Amino acid sequence: HQRWMFSGVRLAMDAAAERGATFAEDVVEGLSKPQKSLPPKYFYDAEGSRLFEAICELAEYYPTRTEIALLGGAAAEISQVIPEGAALVEFGSGASVKTRIVLDAAPQVAVYAPIDISREALADAAHAINQDYPALTVAPLAEDFTRALQLPAAVDGHPVVGFFPGSTIGNFTPEEARSFLDGARRLLGQGAAFLVGIDLVKPQAELVAAYDDALGVTAAFNKNLLARMNRELGGDFDLEAFAHRARWNAAQSRVEMHLESRRAQAVKVAGRTFDFAAGETLHTENSYKFTVEGFARLAAEAGWRLEREWASAHPAFAVVLLRA
Ligand code: AVI
Fold this sequence. Notes:
This protein is an alpha/beta fold. The chain has helices at 23-32, 46-55, 62-80, 97-105, 119-132, 174-188, 204-210, 217-233, 292-301, and strands spanning 2-6, 9-13, 36-37, 87-91, 111-116, 137-138, 141-142, 160-164, 193-199, 242-249, 254-261, 265-269, 272-276, 281-288, 305-312, 317-323.
């Protein structure tokens, strides 16, 4: 545990890399599989988090602005389901932009506990929220929220409301989503409310455009994984030798991102050599698209009841309120 203080916000900098698989282990395992793949959480180093913020501004990437509009319209109703003195626990908080919509509408929130794997993004967001909401106790946790975790002590004794916007839950496989939801239910506790943003199924062209924008920002975000392996694991990936691909997989109801090898090549990374055939892909992300009914079933399998929903028609997106 490494701790430091700034502006009154104490960050518990957990050495996440010390537990479970490290980046190097996950890379060796993922590149050794018949279908090469990497966990999407590795997108979010400082550069990747910056590129993701840029994606959220793109004309083609509708989820962010659609969800922000949805939360704005539903803010008063959302505030009514947040108890007095509540602790708002956010999973994968990033820049905490959507949080402000909730905090502005619900001054009864006493504690804000953002959890994010990107230390830089978390530190900046915690600092900014701390300055703009001086009455709020900010208790950030630099943590991979896919692992078992404990809430910060500042949350103890407060009614808990979970917040997981952005349809980040769509980046899990259904099994991972169930196990995340089950873990979140245990973590947040009996009676907790959980606000979750889910991207909904829509025409294929809109979905693919959102993951293959004209400016190439999503391509840069995808290829940053290669650059990150070069930076951190002594890799020699030639970024020009891979093409960004986004595909709609209708059978699985998900957009897939891949990096396709433009030629046969051997790449060194993490002390190993991996062969890529021409046209072979490294599968880097799934982004599942839901129906509200389908998501309610998934949540029910993890012990949550869907209590309310706020949905937009075009582009289709929903924020749901689950109850433990
Ligand atoms: C964070 N997550 C919900 C994004 C998504 O839409 O699946 C990540 C992303 N990948 C490409 N563009 C955005």
